Amino acid sequence: MRFLYKAKTLDGETVEGKLEALSQQGAVDFLINKGLVILSLEENKGGGIFSLKIKIGTGVREKDMVLFARQLSVMVGAGLPLVSALDVISKQTTNYSFKDVILNITDNVRGGARLSSALDKYKNIFSSFYINMIRAGETSGKLDEVLTYLADEQEKNYDLISKVKGAMTYPIFILVMVAVVAFGMMTFVVPKLTSILTEAGVALPLPTRILIATSNFSSKYWLIIIIAIVAMVFIVRFLIKSTKTGRWVWDKLKLKLPVFGKLFQHIYLTRFSRSLATLLTGGVPLTSSLRIVSDVLGNIVYKDLIDRTVEAVEGGRSISSVFISSPDVPPMLSQIMSIGEQTGQLDSILARMANFYAREVENLLGKLTVLLEPIIIIILGVVVGVMVASIILPMYNIGAAIG
Predict the structure, then answer these.
(1) Inside any domain, residue 337
(2) What is the reported pTM?
(3) Which of 72, 151, 198, 231 is the most buried (most CB within 10 A)?
(4) Does residue 213 carry a pLDDT above 60?
C-alpha cells in the first residue's frame, strides 16, 4: 500500500513524501522510528495522472533510462550517498512519470530498503537484467563499479538501437508513401483515365486490362480494403503477442529474411553477448545469468535455445554444447565460447564478441542504406512505368484506329 504523509522533524521542519507499507500501522511505525512527528497520513488510492501513465504504458523512454544510469553511476562513483544521488536525479528528471517512480524509489531506500529491492517493485520499467546487476553489486560491495559498467552498457545498447531505427526510418517511410500514393491513384485517378479508353472501343493490351480491373476493384471496395488491412494488422499483432506459435514463426521469419535476416541475427547476438558478459562480470552465477538473458533478448527462437542451454549446464555439459548444434548461431561464436569456458575467461571473450557483432551491425546498416536507395528507386520506377505504359499503349491503338 502507498501512503502520503506530512510530518515534522525534530528540528521543527515540515516534510512531505510518499512511502510504501503493508498497512497503515506499518507506515506509522516507520515514520516514528525515523524520529518524525506525524501531522497527516493517508492512503494514496488514486495515484493521479502520473500513476495512470505507469500502469497503461511506463511512459519511460530508453533515453530516460540511459540518463538515469549514467547520472547515478557518476554521483555514486564520486562518493555521494545513494539517497542523495537519487534525490538529485528526481529533481533533474523532466519526465514526470519517471520522476514519480524515482521519488518512490528514493523513499524506499531512505527507509532502509536496498536499491535492488526498491527497483524490483517497478519491473515494468527496470528489467530483471538491470535489477540483478544492481543486486550483484550490492552483494559484492562494488555498487559504484557496477553502476558505471551498467551505464556504459546501456549507452552502447541505446546507440545500437538508435542507429538501427535511424537507418530503417527513411526506406520504411518511402515504401509506405509509395503504397499510399499508388492506392490513391488506383482508386481515384486511374478510373477517370481508363473510362476514356473503354469508351473508345479498341482492343486493350493485357497490362491495361489488369490495371482497369484492379482500379475498378479498389475504387468500389476501397473502404473494405482498408478495413481488411487494419484487421489483418491487428490479427497478426495479436498472434505474435498472445500465442507462442505466432511469436516463434514471426521471430524465425525475421532471422530468415534474405536481406535483413543477418542484420537481425547480429543484433540479437550482440545483445546476448553483451548482456551475458555484463552479468558474469557482475558476479551473477552462469545459470542465473542465462535465465535473465533469455528474457531480455526479445526473440523466442534464441530464448528457447538459451533455455535448453540452461538445462545442459545444469546437467553438467558446457554452455557451447547446445550452441554448436544450432543453425541460428554462427560457428565462430560457439567455438569462441568453448575456448572461453576452457580458459575461464568467458566474460571477457563475450565482451569482445559483443563489440565485434556491434561493429558488424554498423557495417551491415551502412551497406543496407546504400543498397536500399537504388532498390527503392527501382520499385518506384516499376510502379510508375507499369501504370504509365498501361495508359499510353492504348492511346497508340486509338491513334492508329483513327488514322
Answers:
(1) yes
(2) 0.64
(3) 72
(4) yes
Range of the domain at 290: 269-358
Decide if 339 contacts 349 (C-beta within 8 A): yes
What would the pLDDT profile of 164-202 be if each residue is shown by its tens digit?
777 778 778 877 887 887 777 777 777 777 677 666 666
Domain CATH code at residue 11 = 3.10.20
Rounded CA-CA distance 129/294 in Å is 10
**Stretch 352-373: mean pLDDT:** 83
Whether residue 319 has pLDDT greater than 90 = no
For residues 64 and 39, membership in a common domain is answered with no
Same domain assignment for residues 28 and 69: no
Classified as helix, coil or strand, 39 is: strand
391 part of a folded domain: no
> pLDDT at position 176, please?
83
User: What does the mean pLDDT of the chain come to?
Assistant: 79
Concatenate the DSSP letters of all residues of 233-299 into one string. Answer: HHHHHHHHHH-HHHHHHHHHHHHH-TTTHHHHHHHHHHHHHHHHHHHHHTT--HHHHHHHHHHHS--
Residue 118 and residue 134: Cα distance in Å, rounded? Answer: 11
> CATH number for the domain including 273?
1.20.81.30
Looking at the fold, whether 282 and 333 belong to one and the same domain comes out as yes
If one counts the domains in the chain, the total is 3
User: Does one domain contain both 37 and 65?
Assistant: no
- Whether 390 contacts 207, CB under 8 Å: yes
46 DSSP assignment: S
CA distance linking residue 351 with residue 357, whole number of Å: 10
Distance in angstroms between the alpha carbons of the first and the last residue of the chain: 89
Same domain, 68 and 131: yes
Say if 154 falls within a structural domain: no
What order of strands is seen across the sheet that includes strand 37-43? Answer: 14-20, 2-8, 37-43
Q: What is the pLDDT of residues 65-76, one digit of tens each?
A: 888 888 888 888
Whether 395 is in a domain gets the answer no
